[in-house]
Amino acid sequence: MNIQRWLKRLSFASMAGMFLILLMGALVTKTESGRGCGDDWPLCNGKFVPAYTIESLIEYSHRFVVGVVGMILLATTILVLLYSHRKDAKWYVGGAMAFTVLQAILGAMAVVWPQSGPVLALHFGFSLLSFAFTLLLYLVYTKFGEAMHRGDGTRLTKGVRIAIWGILIYSYVVVYLGAYVRHSESTGGCIGWPLCNGQVIPELSGATGIVFMHRVAAAVLGIAILVLFLVVRMQAHTDSAIYRATRLSLVLIILQILSGGFVTLAMGYDIYLLASMLHALLISCLFGILCYLGITSLHAAEGKVQAYAAPRLP
Q1: What Cα–Cα distance (Å) separates residue 55 from each residue in 78, 119, 188, 284?
Q2: Which residues are catalytically annotated?
Q3: Domain locations in the chain?
Q4: 268-288, pLDDT tens digit by residue?
Q5: Prediction pTM value
Q6: Which of 15-24, 100-109, 111-120, 121-130 has the lowest average pLDDT?
Q7: Spatial separation of the C-alpha atoms in residues 39 and 66, rounded to whole Å
Q8: Residue 187 DSSP symbol
């Protein structure tokens, strides 16, 4: 049995599955299908195969996919722990499993007991972290894994490396604020885009204050990534992994901000659901790329680049 091939296949399946869970979770929230199975978990309205309604179909399909992906991730975890000699791979699969369990527990709690907006927002946040860990795990077994393991020869100043991790952590805060907007039912707090209710700075209270805070946070993230790109461009070669990841992050944050405006302008129209799903898709990709950038930057210190030792597999 070619262990290397199975590690790559299962890690890819785990990553793709986590990405699907993210999108399906966003679909559950946007279609208000979270109560589609009543107060029952893991059953749906007391049945293993529930009666057909749109809400129950969406919610139960989400649960089913979480279960299947959970089993795939469990198999991946066992294989990585037993056969992989890459310590980083073990950290990634362990993180993915931990946050998958946490988001499953939060999901079950949200069904059985009513939860507050701040707690519900964590559900998406944990799902995003699960996806990020599985993405990093998959990249270990691709050509990008070398840069994550030893760097690509790029040398960055300490300040830039700190900035990369600061932006990564801050991006998670922005994601949480976006999830809180949805779960606190504040989506309609700002009518219009880029202005909020026709004002540059609206009344900062209630739903309007929540939405406006998310908009400002997203704008600050966009400016931070733009500045980071300009600085990295001066320190890294254009063909380096760090430069390309930073450039892609800039493209994604621009698209993410525009998609946020698209969501606002699409409210009340049939394309609103599509706009919302696009918004969730883009932020997931952006966070994943920032995680890759953060890990790769750890090996871009000033000085001698670490020697690379290829992973040994039986």
Answers
A1: 35, 22, 22, 24
A2: 59
A3: 1-141, 151-303
A4: 788 988 998 999 999 999 999
A5: 0.86
A6: 111-120
A7: 18
A8: G
